[in-house]
Amino acid sequence: MIHAIGQLSAVVATALFIFSLHWMSDPKTSRNGVFAGVAGMAIAVFATWIQPEIIHHAWIFLAIIAGFIVGVPLSRVPLTAVPQRTALSHAFGGLAAGLVGTAEYHLWLTEGPENFTTFRMAALVIEVILGFLTFTGSLMAAGKLQEVSWIPQRPVTYPGQNFVNLGVLAAAAVLGVMLVVNPMAPWAPNALLGIIGLALLFGVLLIIPIGGADMPTVISILNSYAGLSAVAMGFVLNSMLLVTAGALDGSSGLILSIIMCRAMNRSFTNVLFGAFGAVQKTKQIGEAKVWKQESAEGAAQLLEQARLVVIIPGYGMAVAQAQHKVRELYDQLTKRGVTVKFAIHPVAGRMPGHMNVLLAEADIPYTALAEMDEINPEMPQCDVALVIGANDVVNPAARTDKGSPIYGMPIIDADKAKTVLAIKRSKNPGFAGIDNELYVQDNTWMLFGDAKSVIGDLVKQFAGGGIH
Amino acid sequence: MRDYWSMLFVFVLATFIGLGVIRKVSRLLYTPLMSLTNAISAIAVVGSLVVTGADYPQTIRILGAVALFASMTNIVSGFLITDRMLKMFKKQ
Fold this sequence. Notes:
The complex is a heterodimer.
Chain A: H1 2-22, H2 30-49, H3 58-74, H4 82-111, H5 118-146, H6 161-181, H7 188-207, H8 215-237, H9 240-263, H10 268-273, H11 296-305, E1 308-313, H12 315-319, H13 323-335, E2 339-344, H14 354-361, E3 369-371, H15 372-375, E4 384-388, H16 397-400, E5 419-424, E6 444-448, H17 451-463
Parallel strand pairs in A: 1-2, 1-4, 2-3, 4-5, 5-6
Helix pairs in contact in A: 1-2, 1-9, 4-5, 4-8, 5-6, 5-7, 5-8, 6-7, 8-9, 11-17, 13-17
Chain B: H1 4-23, H2 30-41, H3 45-53, H4 58-88
C-alpha cells in the first residue's frame, strides 16, 4: 500500500513538472509554473520519506535545515549575480549525483552484488563522470562570473590543450569500462576513485579556456549535463521520476545551448574546444578612423527629437547596474511621446535571458522588449539606436568582414539606424578584443564613461531643465 | 528489478516532451526557466533521502546526507529565485 502511494506520487509529480514548464510559455501564467513545481517536489519528497526503508530521520532533518540555511540567502542575490548563482546550482546538482553514485557503488559492493549488471554499472559510471565534471566545471564558471581573483578571467590556452583535455576524458572512460566489466575486482574501488579524480580535473580543464562572452552557451551546456547526470542517477536507482525530471532539465539545457550557439554562429565543439579569446589577432583598420564624442546635452537633444529610439543593452549595463537609470530615461522619453523599444540579442549578458530579467527588475514592461529578429526590420526607421555596454552583438564586422572571428554571427543592425549613440566604458576594444567599426561610422557618436553615470547625466538633461 | 528497456523508453519519450514544452517557453523567461528546471532536477533529492535514511553503513549515509543538502539547497534557492524573478515581469 505505502509502496503504491510512492509510485502514484511519482506519476503525479511528473505531470506537475511538465505543467510547470508548460506554464512558462507566457509571463502571465509563469508563476503557476513555480507553484506546480513546488507541489510536485513536496509530494515526491513526502511520499519517499514515509517509505518503510527510511528509518533514520535525524540526518535528513539536519540536511534539509542546512539546505534552507544556504538556499534562502542564495535566492536573494542581486539579479546581476544570477549567472553565478545558476552556475553554482549546477555545481550542487552535479555534486549530488556524483555522491549518490559513489554511495550506491559501495553499497552494492558490501550488500548487493546482484545489482552489478552491465547496464546499471554503465549508468553509474556515467552518473559519476557527469556529476563530478559538472561540479568542478560549474564551480569554475561561477568563479569566473564572480570574478574571483585567483581564477583567470581571460581564456587560458596552451599548446596541445585539446589533446590533454580529451586524454583526461579518455582515461576516465577506459577506467570506466574496466569498472563496468569487472565491478568487484580488488582494484575496482580505486578505479572509481580514479574516475572521480579525472572527472573533477576534466571539469576544471574544460572551463579554463572559456571566456566571458561564451558563458551563456557554457552555462546552458552545464545545465544539460546536470540534467543528464540526474537521468543516469535515475537508471542507477531504478527511479522513473528521476529519469523524467532529469530528461526535462537536460532537454531544456540542450535547447538553450542550441539557441545560444546559433546566436553566435558557432558549434558546440567550437565553443568547448575553440578557445574563442585566443584566436583573435587585433587587426589594424587601414585608415585610422577616429571616434566622435558627444556631450550629454547633445545626446539628450538627439533623443528628444527622435520618434523611435531603440535601446540595445549588453553586459556593460549589467556591470554598471545601470538598469534603474535606464528606466528613468525610458520614462522621460515616453513622457515626451518618443517610442522606446529594447532590442535584446540572445547572447547579450552572461546567461540566456539575462537582459530581460534586469530590465524587468527595473519595472520596464516586457511588452517594450523585442527580440533581435523582430527589431531588425525596423532598424532603418529607427531615429536613434542607443547602445549601452554592448559590443560584439552590434559589430557590423559580423556581416561584412570574413576575417573577423565573429563573422556570420547574427547581430542587431544598430548601424542601420539614422543615428547611433554608443555608451562605452573605455576606448579599448570589447571583451573579444575585436575592433568595432560601428563606433567610427559617420552617424555614430560616442559617450564614454560608466553606463550608470552617463545615463544619469542624460536623465538630468531631461529632468533638470536642460530640455523641456 | 525493473526492465531497463522500459526505462530507456521513458527517457526518450520524456526528452521529446521536454523538447516540445521548452521550445514553447517565452524567450523573455530563459533565465527563470533555467533556475526552475534546476530546481526540478533537484528531484534527485528522493535518491539522497533513501541513501541517508535507510539502514546503511555510516560512511554511505554521510555521502547521502551531503548530497541531500546539495539537492535541498537547489530546491529552496531555485524555486524562490524563480518566483522572485517572475514577479518582476509586468505588462505595464
